[in-house]
Amino acid sequence: MKIPFRLLCCLALAFSAGCATQRPAVAPAASQAAPSPLLLISIDGYRADYLQRGLSPTLEQLARDGVRAVGMQPSFPSLTFPNHYTLVTGLRPDHHGIVNNTMLDPQLGKFTLSNRKAVSDGRWWSEATPLWETADQHGVRTATMFWPGTEADIHGRHPDQWLPYNGALTPNQRVDQVLAWLDQPQRPGFLTLYFDGVDHAGHTYGPDTPEVNDALRETDAALARLVEGLRRRGLIDRINVIVLADHGMAPVPQANSVLIDKLVPLDDVQTVGFGVLAGFNPKPGKDFAAIERKLEAPQQHMQCWDKTRVPVRLAYGHNPRVPQLLCLADVGWRITTTAFLAQKHGTVSLGEHGYDNIDPRMQALFVAHGPAFERGVVVKPFANVDVYPLMAHLLNLPPAANDGDYGAVRGMLRPEAR
Ligand code: AMP
Ligand code: ZN
Ligand code: ZN
Questions:
Q1: Which of 80, 102, 192, 349, when mutated, tests ligand 1's pocket best, judged by the most ligand atoms within 8 Å of its CB?
Q2: What is the pTM of this model?
């Protein structure tokens, strides 16, 4: 029998920081008889300071009429799937089990974003309970215009309405789908909407480029279409909208590659993945301890740890899916191999995330607007695990056990909504 990781963690680490961060479930305040609908929007890779570029007028207006955070700290590693699942569970990746975009599990095999079978296999996701599942249990209808995890049958449930991920759907088409869902007689109480153009441009060209600026404009135009659609339906002041990102983006110059094959023989390890956070497991018959000794010694432009020695503040390394040895690139660097670079003819992505989650370039957007939110308030940075207890409160749902703190975000709500 597989013992759930969280239980294992609590048994083994009952008195350590790893488990102490897991806060008990708190009953939500019965502040609203019939909660307003909640729309959670992710603009993948929208770094907190992009808002100051003057290219997101709709977002700026929502912030002026609502709440904006100076920044929101992602969980480590600052990658897409781990952080999207953190946002809807309130658990750090080590606790919810989506510990990377690329994972190996002894029972389940390999997980990658492009592996449709893995992404839609509920067993990868079942260490946590996403908000749409709790909503469903309490009779709140849910509709998701993409969100990692929504394609999977988690504990036998999907959102009531969901679509398989299709990157070709334009931002406007995604907005129109959300508006169509809101037009249904049985209006959903919790909805998601996901945009990926800003992240794509950030990777391909780097964050400080005209291409990212074009993506910011295009995404904002879709938000303007959404706001106009909500206004025409008389919903703009009756729906709570949270617009956020999963992480930021750092420029990575073409030349900034750590070639890890020059440091250790990669044939002697099982490689889980390269990139910003590389992971390796032992290979039978090979001297893994020697490889660990070599890589854990000070290295240029990266730092490596056995998973038991990861700094506590990163809250990472207890989950069995975390590889035994981790190498984290310094911000602005990538970890790769000579062969990979040759195959790519030197063309690598010029923007990356996944780095240390305290780095300023990894901080994410947070803007919220609606009847529950204060108007014209700027709040100090907070951790993205706190979004889940905030959303559970807004929907009047009992939150599952999580790592977040409602107290850290309650001040952004109007007194009558707290
Ligand atoms: P990354 O930048 O590697 O952390 O991954 C971000 C990318 O994941 C996005 O740019 C999307 O193309 C892709 N993505 C987002 N949602 C999904 C999904 N539900 N299924 C597969 N891929 C996705
Ligand atoms: Zn992302
Ligand atoms: Zn990305």
A1: 80
A2: 0.93
Q: Tell me the two tokens of residue 77.
A: 């590693």
**In terms of Cα–Cα distance, which of 385, 413, 411 is closest to 400?**
385
Pocket of ligand 1 (CB under 6 A): 44, 79-80, 101, 113, 119, 146, 148, 165, 167, 196, 199-200
Report pLDDT digits (tens) over 362-413.
999 999 999 999 999 999 999 999 999 999 999 999 999 999 999 999 999 9
- From 29-43, 181-195, 303-317, the region with the lowest mean pLDDT: 29-43
Contact 277, 329 (CB under 8 A): yes
Q: At what angle are helices 57-64 and 210-232 packed, to 10 degrees?
A: 50
pLDDT of 26 above 70 = no
Whether residue 398 contacts residue 392, with contact meaning beta carbons closer than 8 Å, is answered with: yes
- Residues sharing a CB contact under 8 Å with residue 49, sequence separation 6 or more, in sequence order: 71, 363
Please, what is the end-to-end C-alpha distance for the chain in angstroms? 42
**Domain extent listing, the chain:** 17-249+357-417, 257-348
Architecture of domain 17-249+357-417: 3-Layer(aba) Sandwich (3.40)
User: Is domain 257-348 given the CATH code 3.10.180.10 in the classification?
Assistant: no
Does an H or E element contain 60, and which?
helix 57-64
Q: Tokens 């904002």, residue?
A: 220
